[in-house]
Amino acid sequence: MGELEEVRALLSGQRSGTLATIGSAPGPTSTSAGAGAAGFPFGSVVAYALDDEGSPLLCLSDLAEHSRNLAADPRASLLVAEPGPDPLAAPRVTLVGRVWVLHGDERTRGLAAYRRAFPDAGYVDFADFQLYRLEVRTIRHVAGFGRMSWLEPDQKPSLRS
């Protein structure tokens, strides 16, 4: 199996990962402690589905810190790892790119894909939830201990097999 196929298999086999955003200036509901995160990486666990092109779809609440961060700076990464007894020996992938809110027909198609992955996710209909897509620019693939590489944009025409 080639590297891109390994990445596709890993992404298709998992449903959650760690979304890393860049901390934004504190909002009206932030505490003084939250102000210390401005400008720093901020990681949070998110659920994801894959769209028809294999790009990750995220359904995020406007109330979440990562949503506020994305509104200020769309650069982000999504780390997806295969569970196992030794996390350093397990396959993992970091998708690096920009995250955008979907609207119109894109949102409709994306919501259908998200609902297929998470049929019980009633929160997708809440007014404060938006559907986002991670537009992947580059991929860091770690196939296990000592096996790692970057996949450049021309090596990833589609994450969907």
Model description:
This protein has helices spanning 3-13, 32-35, 65-72, 104-117; strands spanning 16-22, 41-47, 49-50, 56-61, 75-81, 92-101, 129-144, 147-151. With 161 residues, it is α+β, with helices and mostly antiparallel strands. Strands 1, 2, 3, 4, 5, 6, 7 and 8 form an eight-stranded antiparallel β-sheet that branches. Strand 7 (129-144) and strand 8 (147-151) form a beta hairpin.
Proportion of residues in β-strands: 35-45%
Rg calc: 16 Å
Summed over residues and divided by their number, the pLDDT gives a mean of 90
Biggest sheet overview: 8 strands, antiparallel
Helix content: 10-25%
Weakly predicted, low-confidence segments: none
In total, how many beta strands?
Answer: 8
Shape: globular
Helix count, per DSSP? 4
Order of helices and strands: HEHEEEHEEHEE
Map the helices and strands:
Blueprint: H1 3-13, E1 16-22, H2 32-35, E2 41-47, E3 49-50, E4 56-61, H3 65-72, E5 75-81, E6 92-101, H4 104-117, E7 129-144, E8 147-151
Antiparallel strand pairs: 1-2, 1-5, 3-4, 4-7, 5-6, 6-7, 7-8
Brief overview:
With 161 residues, the chain is an alpha+beta fold. The protein has helices at 3-13, 32-35, 65-72, 104-117, and strands spanning 16-22, 41-47, 49-50, 56-61, 75-81, 92-101, 129-144, 147-151.
